[in-house]
Amino acid sequence: MELLDAHLIPAVDGVAFGLLLFVVAAGLSLAFGTAGVLNLSHGTLYAIGAYTGAELSDGTWGGLALGLAAGTAAACVAGAGLSAATAPLARRGHLAQALLTFGLALIGGDLLIQFFGADELPVRVPEALDSSVTLLGHRYPAYRLCFIVMAVLLAAFGTWVLTRTRMGAAVRAAADDPQMLAATGHSPRAVHTGVLAAAGALAGAAGVLGAPIIGPGPGTSENVLMLSLVVVVLGGLRSLWATFFAAVAVGEVQTLGVSVAPELAPYLLFAAMAAVLVLRSRFAEPAGAGHGSEAPGPDPVARLRGLLAGRPAGRAAAGPLPGRKHSPVWPARLPGRAAWWQAAPLLVLLVVLISLPALLDAYSISLAGSALALGLLAVSVTVLTGYAGLPTLGQTAPFAVGAYATANLADAGWTVGPVQLVLSALAAAVFAAVVGPAVIRARGTTVLMITLAIGELTGAVVNQLKSVTGGADGLVGFPATRALWGGEGMLEESELYNYALVVAVVAVALTLLVLRSPAGKLLTGTRGAEARMRASGHPVGRYLLVAHICAGALAGVGGSLMVTVQQYLSPADVGFEIAAFALLAVVIGGTTSVVGALLGAGLIVATRDWVAGSWPGHGPLLLGVLFVATVYVLPRGLAGLRGGSGGGPSSDAPRPPDQPPPAPTPSPAGKVSP
């Protein structure tokens, strides 16, 4: 009984918090499971409702009703707008959607702060609810008990709508068989818009009703989004009641878990998320089927010979491509002039980078060094996303391992740069080898979610392991790195930049040599024709694991370089936002362009730190615009502008790793057209 008394209030708080997450996650599940939109701006929809409700709250029932109506309507309109924004990306897969919606989240968050202010807003509830009641001998807020009742009623009502009404039948049909829905005269596009509008309305209503529990303020939307993603993964996409119980479990871990097992609570949620995703990827999908269905093609042995000879992975040894009038035969070796033409961007970029110290001021030079560090992280993402077909949102995990390894080595007196780089790369490679088996069997969106969970788990370790990482305060004050044995610590920006440039050039050169070697061709073939590679006896899993380890080592070098250039390290340097920036850099450059990834990283750092300096306080807005513009304007990246193959998918290239096979689209008359 004493145990119950001690933990009763946290347990009931966990139910209330969990049901708040349920209302948000129900909309996220609806958007992803029915409309097929991976909406990383869902937390911003919650924030729209929360800020609107808080602004209109005046302590009366009328103010609560007005706030609920206005917040729900505003988020509903935003959800409908999201449908229009994501419609052009329907055939480009979830990666483009994730980047677009993350950019919209940055824009929306900045606009909300500009409109409502950066401070947390007070929320006033009606006097009848702004009191406490007796619950098993304890006083408990009446509003939270009222919210629990409303959330349970909402779960029951939502289940009834989805299972017992014609509207619910149309929604289920849109998820299961949109072609059949179109054949019955319904418009899948209208259902798609309605679903996203309804998802936005749920998030907005949750924001208004949840504002007294989680007040609107900076960081609220990100926290709500991450926890809602955990709920959706644990509960699945098919049952509101499964989502309901998963949300309650997450709420209990967040409240009761903190009081019962505070050391374990930060790790439980994302560990459970990763475990569920890994199990689903192992049992729900046979190995080799993850890259999408393939049409019959040439003999796999002939294809492999073509790969080793230097031909693109998706082309046969000779002969025209299906659907094309003619197709050139790729020679086994490019002529010298073509090889120089391909190397020209690298040489031009190198000349520009070498000349930067003579052209820029000290602050800009330090930004260029940071861009090189982020560029190596982006190149490691290119290896995984563009070559191995494993889109990742968690590459900041090995990046963090390398960064903290270098900081701790410097603090222990190991200040020689090459030693730091080798040991940091080794530590990151070991980390990648440990988590690699959990990643390489999954494909597409599942990879994004697993790597996201790994990245968040790493972030939890960073915040908890204060003796090694410094916790939220980070690390600062460690000795400066020496370029070579016997030298002095580098303190000048030009010295640090030149060191970073040399390291980056060596790392990129080694990466390009490997990617253009037979091993790199095998990796490309694994992405483009995995089933055929397996059928011809190739250990695809081993190839992917080696690629994951090498990419982890490269990210570790980038993390080490970042610490050397910045001379400090904080959790924000290795958080989710940096992972999204690295993925954006890859999309800017082209998913298989190493040079493009470096240029993308430079553009991001320039936008975040240099351009934003002339418009203080609007860095997130500028970055959000960059995200949105990149997704729309550069679907194949910078490499695609010059007609190269590195830009991304084309009609004769393999589909992106997260893109489903093309589906028939409904015509205006309701008929299905190919």
UniProtKB/TrEMBL annotation:
Q: Which domain of life is it from?
A: Bacteria
Where do Pro residues bias regions lie? Answer: 654-667
Q: Where are the transmembrane segments?
A: 12-40, 60-83, 95-116, 142-162, 195-214, 226-252, 264-283, 339-360, 367-390, 421-440, 496-515, 543-566, 578-606, 618-635
Enumerate the subcellular locations listed in this protein's record, separating them with semicolons.
Answer: Cell membrane
Q: Mind telling me which InterPro entries this protein's record contains?
A: ABC_transp_permease, LivM-like
Residues of the signal peptide: none
Q: What does the UniProt keyword field contain?
A: Cell membrane, Membrane, Transmembrane, Transmembrane helix
Q: Where is this region: Disordered?
A: 643-674
Which Pfam families does this UniProt record tie to the protein?
BPD_transp_2
Question: What's one GO MF term for it?
Answer: branched-chain amino acid transmembrane transporter activity
How does the UniProt record describe the way this protein sits in the membrane? Multi-pass membrane protein
* Cellular component terms per the entry's GO annotation: plasma membrane
The protein depicted here goes by the name: ABC transporter permease
Q: Which organism is it from?
A: Streptomyces parvus
